[in-house]
Amino acid sequence: MELFPASQIAERLGNNDRLMEMILERNNIIRAWKQVCANKGAPGVDGMKTSQLGNYLAKYWPEIEQDLLNCKHKPLPVKRNEIPKPDGGVRLLGIPTVLDRFIQQAIAQILEQVWEPFFSEYSYGFRPGKSAHDAVVQGKELNQYFRGWWNYFRLTEAQSFLKGLKIWIMRRLRSLVWKQWKNPKTRVRNLEKLGIAHHDAMLCGNARKKYRHMSKIKWVAIAMPEKYFIEKGLYLPGN
After folding, report:
1. Closest C-alpha among 111, 65, 91, 109 to residue 156
2. Using the 8-state DSSP alphabet, how is residue 126 labeled?
3. Do the Cβ atoms of 45 and 77 come closer than 8 Å?
4. Residue 117, burial from CB neighbour count under 10 angstroms (0-12, 13-18, 19+)
5. Whole-number pLDDT of residue 71
6. How far, CA to CA in Å, does 155 sit from each of 26, 78, 158, 182, 200?
7. How many of the other CB atoms lie within 10 Å of CB of 92?
8. CA distances from 119 to 77, 79, 128, 130, 174 (A)
9. pTM value?
10. What residues does 82 pair with on adjacent strands?
């Protein structure tokens, strides 16, 4: 399995065309196909099964690829399904077509790689002329491109994936902010500004745990909920 180097993604991701090229790269497409087949799942409105996806792509992939490159691909409606709740009533579930799940998977694989270097301890924090602010700005540039896909899949079978991805992104964002605050005094002061009581802010701010560990701490999570980052212009999957 070949992944794009972080430096290639961070430095060459200059426009949507480049991003789509990365999504449609052969190895990424093969990974997406294998993952969708492994996930299985019910057919969508077109009735296609995951076991049929390989033959379908072998026949129609050049046409699908061109539609994606030209921004002409239109996902099919999701198939509505009602799941009975234990306490009565039903929960509506939307099932995308296998093809649309495959395209979503291909996008998600690159999205995770795009986010990863933004929050690496070495990608921005220790590079001349680079800063954590640069990472957030570049992250904002992805918002518009992915917003349509997240909105499409938010009510579908992919909800659990979006939830997991959002949790991962939130922890990375908190880790980045915690690192920006640098010293205990700054951390305590900023936690208090964000509504954390002095005693709790002192315990948390003076902790010597690693950034990623601190991103999971209760008081850090309370101080920096989703709203904290949304107000800064970031679009999170599932919102």
Report:
1. 91
2. T
3. yes
4. buried
5. 81
6. 29, 9, 8, 39, 37
7. 10
8. 35, 36, 16, 13, 10
9. 0.51
10. 92
Q: Which residues contact 67 (CB under 8 A, 6 or more apart)?
A: 73
Residue type, 155: L
Q: Which of 4-8, 62-66, 107-111, 202-206 has the lowest mean pLDDT?
A: 4-8
Contacts of 142 (CB under 8 A, 6+ apart): 19, 111, 114
CB of 126 closer than 8 Å to CB of 188? no
3-state secondary structure 133-172: HHHHHHHHHCHHHHHHHHHHHCCECCHHHHHHHHHHHHHH
DSSP characters over 188-235: HHHHHHTT--HHHHHHHHT----HHHHTTSHHHHHHS-HHHHHTTT--
Q: At CA 234, angle to CA 230 and CA 235, rounded to 5?
A: 90
Strand partners for 83: 91
Among 167, 172, 46, which Cα is nearest to 102's?
A: 46
Tokens linked to 140: 């904002």
Give residue 53's Cα distance to chain centre: 24
Residue with tokens 């690693």: 210
Residue pair 123/69 in contact (Cβ under 8 Å)? The answer is no
Q: Which residues does residue 92 pair with via DSSP β-bridges, in sequence order?
A: 82
pLDDT tens column, 39-65: 888 899 999 999 999 999 999 999 999
What is the number of residues in the chain? 239
Cα separation values, 82 from 39, 78, 97, 133, 152, Å = 20, 13, 17, 44, 18
Q: What is the C-alpha separation between 18 and 96, in angstroms, rounded?
A: 26
